[in-house]
Sequence to fold (434 residues):
Amino acid sequence: MDIYNFISFCGMLALLLFAWCFSSDRKRMNWSLIFWGIVIQLAMALFIFIVPAGSKIFLFLNDIVIKILNSSTAGAHFLFGRLALGPGQVNASGETSLGFILAFQAFPTIIFFSSLISILYFLNIMPIIIRGFAYVFTKLMKISGAESLSAASNIFVGIESALTIKPHLKDMTASELCTVLTVGMATVASNVLVLYVLFLQDQFPSIAAHLISASFLSAPAALVMSKILMPESEVPKTLGEHIKPYYERDNSLFEAIINGANSGVTMIVGISALLIAVLGLVALIDLSFAYIGSKICMIFGAEIDFSLKNIFGHIFYPFTLAIGIPVADAGIISKIIGERVVLTEVVAYQDLARVMGENVLSSPRSFVLASYALCGFAHLPSMAIFVGGISALAPSRTGVIASVALRALIAATLGCLMTAAVAGIFFTQGSLLI
Fold:
């Protein structure tokens, strides 16, 4: 343990205080939820980083994910040939890679993992795991069964997790709906998580273990931040109840594979559309900012980096220090964390991989905690997707969902930062997960 572990602990408390300052009702805190949410996170992080058996389990999971990931490329290699070869790879015909191409090397893994998750649902493995986590959240945190089920589902899946609570959405309170949006944006889907593994595994061999642990830590963090920023002022219909996940089971294993693959394709189309639109719009905004910056430079004679990435980098700089990033790396990491708000976590993880490849970070602690802080859909494009998707399932609640969306985005962002701070409390240079 060193000073940075203590800084991360203080940072976790600071994030909780920051959320309380912007709460919609500071007198209605669910102290049971806050206490148990923190305890669950600390216990998980202690098991992952300090207990040797915990580290070995997550390293084992890391190896499994990497092996599955390698298997997932077989279809892409057959379909796209050398376009699917990663940097430095050579196929059986002696053809070499053309370099990293996101569409041909990373996106096919989403289709494969979507089918794999669909198979786990068909075999009733995933519903049992989700119900287990939901039971713990409901009993310990004193929240509604629908919220618990939503949080537990989001550990493993993305926007489709809303389907597990579809019958309950129309009757949920504003605070519950805020929580549903928050846990959705503070976590990542399993089939997208492997995309980040693909980006970082060359520079960070144990990245899968960290991202898996981040998925588990982020759910209680999201519940805590959501309920601090928007405490419950009504009585939820499913308060204290343990409800079963709602989902339409496929008729056969092959149908599950087909539907899973089709869901993966839909997700890829959505991600592609977002990247094209958002990156283009940000480039246009930065062009305008550059023009304004040049005029300011002419007037004051000072060089100013006027871009969205730099602006958000300054905004997130104190938060980056608070979670325990060393001062020497805080400027770089804050820009990467900040850009996630508008450019999505896909771009942010690519930038993190680039920075790691250039060896400009002074400590392994920096890229480990950054990987935790980025592990979530906490950005504006995702907020639009979740608001639209959940509103489609409960049209009568569209107005309420839209009204709590921005608060949910803030809660999700703080939840991701809290996950990084909790990891920072226990991470040491001697950790097995490096």
Summary: The first helix runs from residue 3 to 21. The radius of gyration is 21 Å. The chain has a mean pLDDT of 86. The CA atoms of residues 293 and 305 lie 7 Å apart.
